[in-house]
Amino acid sequence: MICNDGYKYLLSSPSVCVSKCPVKTWTNYLEGYCGFCDISCKNCTDNTKNCLECENGYYPLEDNQKLCFSNCPVGYILDLDNKICKKCPISCEICNLENNCIMCFENYFLNKKLKQCFTKCDPGFYPNKFERVCSECSYPCFECISPDMCLSCPANLYLNPLLITGNCVNNCPDGYWADSSTNKCILCDPRCKLCQNLKKCLSCKNDFYYLKETNECLSNCPKQYYYNWEIPDLKLNSKIIKITDSVRTCEKCEIGCLMCSNSKDYCFACDINFFLLFEQNKCIENCPLENYYADINTRKCSKCNVICKSCKGPQINDCLSCDLDSGLILKNGYCIKEGCPPGFILIENNSCFGLIHCIEYASLFVPKIFNIAADAFIGKFDFKIKEICASFKKGFGIIWDRNSTMINKAVISADNTTYLLKREDLVESELNLRINVYYSNKFFLTSFNETSVLVLNKV
């Protein structure tokens, strides 16, 4: 239908023309009719939901009053006094008129104390995704992801990485230490069984030795320390702790002792300015005045020639004093009674010939390092007398010194040239052999010394 100028027809009654569109309709000037408003609008400007006035029982949004609703949408609460849908805080899905959140949108969680929604929960609470609330940790966590699964711990408790639940603990497990700055159990050095911090071990795992001076766990003890198998007492935070499984420790040798074994004063090598008294396995600053001299090369107190009371070296003419009670006098380094000094023989022209000059060569062989797991230990001595001494060659003889290592267990050959120690008698240590050359089983001429280090390398 076409109405006269200034009139519009009704969509509900196309045969009726009106000069003004009625309530709940809007004027379409382009096509000349009165269109229906949305059911939520009492008055409108077009056929959308943009109302000029809401229908009875419908309420405008607080932040967009052109939109009217019979039931306020999610995120709004109906304020009947003001006849408006009041907007909730931005993260609330449901709230009350006091702007307190009751339910949160997804990925937000209700803080029941503040009655607001947040992306994160306060310490001691975790984000409950099912209820969209901050639920309290049931275990004493500082932060958690479930009632009893902690992410961080409060003061005086420590996060135990070995536990899934109930993981805030008073004491960290073996192999971890309590870091009070982070309230976490931190992994010790992999060699430590117990530790106080990353650099301070209190006891060691198997195959390592505890060095208390540096609080380290070592594969091998350093120089001037020995391997100890006793169980130590350790003091930590005023408490004495018995470390029952930390039986391996490095204990310091006695002062002056460069290498020791089994105890601090059982030495077999000495530091500079000290000398090893082999018979006592002691390192001393000054060798005994009688029967010994300080050997600078070996750092040992070595025996004088048996004829000397005191001496400066091992030779028969190195004497410094003699046994006067035996009627011996000191002459040119020799202790003699009369005639030729010991070690000399009277020859045809009534002169004294030094027997030491008869030795063309002599060699005492021992392995410098010997594996006691391999076989028996053998030391060999070989010497030759010069042809000029052939007439009295039979008078020369050799004998192993009584201070040679384990001489009471040695198997010595009939000609005294071989010194054998059975495998079962050997232990890790330093082995010293000394053989003496005599004439007529009476006069000591010279001696030869060699040292071997006995080690255990399983084969």
| CATH fold naming of the domain at 359-455 | Immunoglobulin-like
The helical percent reads under 10%
CATH superfamily membership of the domain at 359-455: Immunoglobulins
**Largest β sheet strand count, sense and barrel closure:** 4 strands, mixed
Distance between the termini: 117 Å
Residue stretches low in confidence (pLDDT < 50, at least 5 long) are none
Mean pLDDT: 87
Q: What integer value in Å does the Rg equal?
A: 52 Å
- State the strand order across the main sheet: 2-1-4-3
CATH architecture of the domain at 359-455: Sandwich
* Highest CATH level, the class of the domain at 359-455: Mainly Beta
Tally of DSSP helical segments: 0
% residues in beta strands? 35-45%
Got a strand count?
Answer: 50
Question: How would the global form be characterised?
Answer: rod-shaped
Structural class: mainly beta
Can you give keywords for this protein?
4-stranded mixed sheet, Hormone Receptor, Insulin-like Growth Factor Receptor 1, Chain A domain 2, 0% helix, 4-stranded antiparallel sheet, 459 residues, rod-shaped, mainly beta
